[in-house]
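User: quick one, sequence for these tokens?
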């Protein structure tokens, strides 16, 4: 093959990118592309934002803005996050571009003119008040199985049942709450059933090398029998269907989004044909190889639907491989964008600056290549500190600091080799073939692990040889040990370039390594004797407990907020008579002083002006308030509650009234306007 075209699933521009997206799609794609570039291969890495579809319109309604406002904002956030994180796209464009609109429209029109679609008229749910047809996800109603009142038109999240809108009881518009009626509408469908025999041959017979999860899901779909799939829909946001009688209809987002790979390539090539050639060379030349990196929720689109579209068109190459990953969970729970339960890339980059490689490393080490995997902040800290810092960083620092200390940073000459030297050299000379074979097979987790073994070899070698001791008795021997250690250091800069580009760049700067070539991996003369090295510095810094705790607390706060949003108020307590209420003397008091109680973390001590005298009240709200926040406030308190004595001798003369939220947080009750201290509540 002359060239390799790599695409990564277009992230949906209705929110930022999170670590699940990174682990499933973008980090493995970037590793593979960087590896091919290191080998000197002709490669093009295509990305972009998917900006059409119902979720965008839903967010726009919630935020009171236009869909274009939404996608403009999130496209910029996503694109900048990718750039800062080091996802090295050659082009990152968007599906709202003029080039894409025209290209997708022309693609549809060609298939339409050639009779590749079938028109079907059907009854679909319609909101008469808002004047729109609704998608499955935009419809809610009572679940016919568990009778939850807010099941979606495609799934009940309470019982997990897969549904269709027709099964819902009393369906309604999920956004407006309006009741729905059935109305006839016409759409165009891609008859996937007509492509089934070809797909069975192409996938099941010719691509048995695909990952088991990809092959298995494709086989399941094919075994179930393919059906026509709509390529248009009733919506006012998207690419208008370019045929007469299609007013108010747009191309279905699943149809126009993958065409974005082609239109984005065209955008790049048209802007710089001298460097990239023509887009047709990448997409229509049999000498081009196409690789799709996706998550498992996109397998059917990239392995069955999009190839059928390309086959129907007739001019395009088909994907050679589709290395799809499974899902990444977070602290044992599913990542949820709707519930804000995620580690968002843009926030990570702000809160842990200059830690891109640490996240890349951990996401690759936990890559969900064969099954769902889990990301935890504890594991993140452990891998960073115990592997990047203690193994890779430790070896590099030792080698460079000893070179600086003993030889003023100049690579020493290699002397006569011992059996130990030869064994170490032989061991790391084999790493290139092992890492390369794993990368070619899209086993990025194992490939990174193999690269880390280089550092383990180096750590063991330098620890066994103890040059800091031998320097006193055999300085010539130390030259050889340091020389070999430096060659291994240079090898690490190459081996980790696809995985950890930022630290590899820093390492190359420290060892003044100007060229970078995959074919040099395994060589033992990368840093010649007499070469002056740069100033050494720590390659990685430890992740402190405080940093991890902040991230864990952030997630816990999100969980509490979600629980509060979904919680219902506690049932009303048993009825009491008015006379019982009259027994409570609730008054307004002014907080004169407030302070924490020593050795009792939960307690605050108040000095209250109750209108008659000053009284002390102790309240267990220190978790939610700083004393300074409450000084001068007017609060409600029970004035005739029996005094309560604490173990430290402190006596509380009443109870301050607070409201407890569903998530357990506390809010002290106050009055809207200032009143005189001692005023009664009635």
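Assistant:
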């Amino acid at each position: 093959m002359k060239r390799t075209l790599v695409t990564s699933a277009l992230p949906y521009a209705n929110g930022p990118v999170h670590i699940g997206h990174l682990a499933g799609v973008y980090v493995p794609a970037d590793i593979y592309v960087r590896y091919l570039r290191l080998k000197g291969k002709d490669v093009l890495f295509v990305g972009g934002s998917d900006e059409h579809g119902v979720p965008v319109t839903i967010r726009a309604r919630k935020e009171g803005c236009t869909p274009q406002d939404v996608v403009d904002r999130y496209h910029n956030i996503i694109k900048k996050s990718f750039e800062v994180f080091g996802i090295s796209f050659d082009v990152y464009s968007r599906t709202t571009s003029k080039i894409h609109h025209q290209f997708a429209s022309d693609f549809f029109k060609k298939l339409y003119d050639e009779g590749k679609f079938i028109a079907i008229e059907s009854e679909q749910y319609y909101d008469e008040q808002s004047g729109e047809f609704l998608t499955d996800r935009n419809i809610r109603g009572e679940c016919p199985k568990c009778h939850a009142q807010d099941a979606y038109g495609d799934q009940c999240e309470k019982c997990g049942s897969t549904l269709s809108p027709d099964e819902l009881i009393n369906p309604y518009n999920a956004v407006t709450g309006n009741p729905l009626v059935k109305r006839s509408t016409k759409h165009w469908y891609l008859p996937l059933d007509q492509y089934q025999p070809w797909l069975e041959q192409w996938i099941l017979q010719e691509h048995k090398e695909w990952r088991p999860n990809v092959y298995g899901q494709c086989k399941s779909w094919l075994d179930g029998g393919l059906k026509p799939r709509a390529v248009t829909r009733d919506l006012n946001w998207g690419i208008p269907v370019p045929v007469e009688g299609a007013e108010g209809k747009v191309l279905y987002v699943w149809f126009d989004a993958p065409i974005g790979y082609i239109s984005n390539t065209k955008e790049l090539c048209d802007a710089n044909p001298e460097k990239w050639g023509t887009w047709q060379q990448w997409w229509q030349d049999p000498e081009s190889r196409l690789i799709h990196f996706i998550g498992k929720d996109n397998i059917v689109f990239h392995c069955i639907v999009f190839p059928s579209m390309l086959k129907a068109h007739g001019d395009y190459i088909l994907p050679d491989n589709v290395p799809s990953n499974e899902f990444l969970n977070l602290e044992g729970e599913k990542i949820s964008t709707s519930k804000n339960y995620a580690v968002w890339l843009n926030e990570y980059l702000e809160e842990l600056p200059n830690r891109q490689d640490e996240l890349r490393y951990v996401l690759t080490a936990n890559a969900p290549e064969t099954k769902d995997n889990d990301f935890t902040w504890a594991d993140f800290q452990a891998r960073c500190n115990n592997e990047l810092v203690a193994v890779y960083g430790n070896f590099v620092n030792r080698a460079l600091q000893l070179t600086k200390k003993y030889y003023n940073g100049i690579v020493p000459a290699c002397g006569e080799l011992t059996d130990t030297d030869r064994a170490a050299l032989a061991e790391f000379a084999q790493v290139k073939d092992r890492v390369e074979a794993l990368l070619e097979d899209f086993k990025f987790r194992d490939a990174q692990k193999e690269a880390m073994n280089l550092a383990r070899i180096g750590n063991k070698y330098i620890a066994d040889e103890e040059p800091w001791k031998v320097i006193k008795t055999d300085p010539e021997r130390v030259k050889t040990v340091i020389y070999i250690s430096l060659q291994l250091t240079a090898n690490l800069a190459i081996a980790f370039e696809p995985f950890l580009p930022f630290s590899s760049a820093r390492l190359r700067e420290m060892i003044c390594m100007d060229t970078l070539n995959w074919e040099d991996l395994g060589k033992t003369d990368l840093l010649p004797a007499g070469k002056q090295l740069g100033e050494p510095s720590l390659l990685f810094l430890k992740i402190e407990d405080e940093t991890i705790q902040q991230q864990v607390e952030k997630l816990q706060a999100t969980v509490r907020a979600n629980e509060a949003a979904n919680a219902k108020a506690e049932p009303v307590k048993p009825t009491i008579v008015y006379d019982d209420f009259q027994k409570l003397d609730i008054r307004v008091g002014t907080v004169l002083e407030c302070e924490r109680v020593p050795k009792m973390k939960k307690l605050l001590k108040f000095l209250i002006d109750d209108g008659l005298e000053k009284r002390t009240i102790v309240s267990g709200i220190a978790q939610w308030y700083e004393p300074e926040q409450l000084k001068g406030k007017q609060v409600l308190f029970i004035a005739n509650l029996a005094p309560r004595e604490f173990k430290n001798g402190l006596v509380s003369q009443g109870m301050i009234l607070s409201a407890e939220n569903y998530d357990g947080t506390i809010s002290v009750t106050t009055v809207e306007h200032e009143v005189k201290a001692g005023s009664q509540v009635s």
